[in-house]
Amino acid sequence: MTESAPDMPNASLTRQAMDRLRGEIIDCRLRPGETLAEGSTAQRLGLGKAPIRAALARLAEEGLVEAVPRRGWVVSLVTIRDIHEVFDLRLLLEPEAARRAAGRVASGDTALAEARQRSMAAASLVERLEARHDFHRRVADLSGNERLSHQIGRLLDESRRMMLLRPGQAGSDTPVAENLLLAVLEGRAADAARAMHEAVWTFRTGVLSALTAPEAGTVL
After folding, report:
1. Three-state SS string across the chain, please?
2. Do 56 and 21 meet the contact criterion of CB atoms below 8 Å apart?
3. Are 165 and 78 within 8 A, CB to CB?
4. pLDDT digits (tens, 9 = 90+) for 22-47
5. In the CATH hierarchy, which top-level class contains the domain 80-211?
6. Torsion angles phi and psi, residue 79, rounded to 5
7. CA pair distance 148, 142, nearest whole angstrom
8. Rounded to two decimals, what is the model's pTM?
9. Is 97 exposed, middle or buried (0-12, 13-18, 19+ CB in 10 A)?
10. Residue 147 burial (C-beta neighbours within 10 Å; 0-12, 13-18, 19+)
């Protein structure tokens, strides 16, 4: 019988470490350029070094951290190229998801409208972004394509991080979002796609404007 290596990390502990570290990076509690030592991170999260090391290696595959000689692990910077690539993909994928989602809301299903209401009622930027991205995720889920929804979810996480780097950039999207919500609920596929494109373009413009300002030091 083959025995597992003594330093083989437990899969559930690795997943726990990944989820917690990813959340801290996405929400900018761990800032771009911040160093992550395996020992202190393990102690802070109450986990062993093996799952922390495995989690950091997987987060490196997602581009959220980098292994730097003599420094250990470092939270990845956000670059102009990152912004363009993330939002270019969102502009390609999300309008199609919205087009497919139109007319697919089941009778009596209020989840999409409730997500929109939470966005309007949110008291803080973090709450507003969480509700806004929940709304976009629900539209993606309604597309009926799980792989498409999964990819959009990853892109939403990345763009959430970009938005939180400069809090002043997330303005109101009420008219666009209302048009999108109504188009999806009423089954107007072409209008839903157009409204989604406008919404994503608005977010992209705000992020680029804020993160390329002279005082923005987190973008290369």
Report:
1. CCCCCCCCCCHHHHHHHHHHHHHHHHCCCCCCCCEECHHHHHHHHCCCHHHHHHHHHHHHHCCCEEEECCCEEEECCCCHHHHHHHHHHHHHHHHHHHHHHCCCCCCCCCHHHHHHHHHHHCCCHHHHHHHHHHHHHHHHHHCCCHHHHHHHHHHHHHHHHHHHHCHHHCCCCHHHHHHHHHHHHHCCHHHHHHHHHHHHHHHHHHHHHHHCCCCCCCCC
2. yes
3. yes
4. 999 998 899 999 999 999 999 999 99
5. mainly alpha
6. -110, 165
7. 10
8. 0.82
9. buried
10. exposed
And the tokens for 203?
């977010």
86: tokens are 């993330």
Inform me whether the pLDDT recorded for 68 exceeds 60: yes
- Arithmetic mean of pLDDT over the chain: 86
Encoded tokens for 119: 């966005």
Lowest-confidence range among 35-44, 66-75, 208-217?
Answer: 208-217
The phi, psi pair for 67, rounded to 5°, reads -90, 120
Question: Within its chain, how far is the Cα of 11 from the centroid?
Answer: 23
Which CATH number applies to 11-75?
1.10.10.10
The DSSP bridge partners found for residue 36 are 73
Two tokens, residue 32: 């771009």
- Domain chopping of the chain, boundaries: 11-75, 80-211
